[in-house]
Amino acid sequence: MTETIDAQVLPTPIAPLSLLTHGGVLVAAGFTGDPGEMFARLPAKLRALPLNPVDDLGKPARAVRDYLDGDLFALDSVEVDQPGTPTRQRLLAALRAVPPGTTVSYARLAEHAGLPKTAARAAGGACAQNLIAPFVPCHRVLPSVGGFGGYYYGAHVKEWLLGHEKAL
């Protein structure tokens, strides 16, 4: 049996959400109707596999539907895997620990990851390179100076997600 990257696009109230799995583990998710956009951001070893559209990815798709229906912790149950240095992995783990309905600053995220306050820039980089939104909830990180800050899929998507979670 050939290994593949399985992909499904789900409708959401704000934008289509593409989900990509490898061996049942979520390796990419993003607010785009074109899974190829997410596929292009994967590490080379995964891009070497064929992209396989499927009708139902199972648990990740159910988690999205449950999240949209109000179970704000549903995304936490999905296994994810993305590349990164040990520092980046600590930041991504800290991101997953930020509860729905709350926000943190980049500096606070770095602190939660056990990194010095000077690592706020690294926290911003981890958010910018996050391949698995909203499962790794970088939308819950706001600049300490106010506003929404950047978001790969647009500030309007970040604002919608925070509103859905009632974190505004």
Automatic annotation (TrEMBL):
CDD domains: ATase. It catalyses: a 6-O-methyl-2'-deoxyguanosine in DNA + L-cysteinyl-[protein] = S-methyl-L-cysteinyl-[protein] + a 2'-deoxyguanosine in DNA; a 4-O-methyl-thymidine in DNA + L-cysteinyl-[protein] = a thymidine in DNA + S-methyl-L-cysteinyl-[protein]. Gene3D superfamilies: Winged helix-like DNA-binding domain superfamily/Winged helix DNA-binding domain. It comes from the Bacteria. InterPro entries: MethylDNA_cys_MeTrfase_AS, MethylDNA_cys_MeTrfase_DNA-bd, MethylDNA_cys_MeTrfase_DNAb, WH-like_DNA-bd_sf. NCBIfam families: ogt. One of its GO terms (molecular function) is methylated-DNA-[protein]-cysteine S-methyltransferase activity. This is Methylated-DNA--[protein]-cysteine S-methyltransferase. Keywords: DNA damage, DNA repair, Methyltransferase, Transferase. PROSITE patterns: MGMT. Residues 87-166 form the Methylated-DNA-[protein]-cysteine S-methyltransferase DNA binding domain. PANTHER family: METHYLATED-DNA--PROTEIN-CYSTEINE METHYLTRANSFERASE. Transmembrane segments: none annotated. GO terms for biological process: DNA repair; methylation.
